[in-house]
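Quick log. Single chain, no ligands specified.
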Amino acid sequence: MSDMQAEKRGERYTGLLIFAGCMAITIAIFILVPGAWSVAIPETLKFDLAPLLAESALVQFHVWTVAVALLIGPLQFVLPKGTAAHRVFGWIWAAAMLSTAIATFFIRDMRDGQFSPIHIFSVMALIGVPMALWLARIKAMSHARAMIGLYIGLVIAGVTAIAPGRVIWEMFFG
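-> predicted structure:
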């Protein structure tokens, strides 16, 4: 087996490991978030778009771009690296991340118009996404690590959105 094939196989295993980690985080969320199990059981699933639709267009845009990034992330971890599909989904993911990060700077209704600590994730995305895209051309493993870190940051920020009283909470548990 050539070094290139061994590297590709290693990347694929790394992708599967990251995907498994994301699934473990998802399971942990369902275990640790009060009421989350009721969402996982189809008979009691309460998914209501009304709370989201009652929000401003900016908040709706933010939620949809976050949803796109959350869904594409695990797909990117398992797709073969360097393929056309990986690149296309990667650019869509990057656009969603940058769009949602920019949108958050105009969403400041939680703290009387002030920025909140969660905005640090937006700054990280605005710096990290272009850097990770640049790294894709010069150092693949650094690119992969940067993208993994950005996805973890997205998940952490997303977990804070599940807090009681927030729009996502109302959509699923309200």
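Residues 3-173 form one domain.
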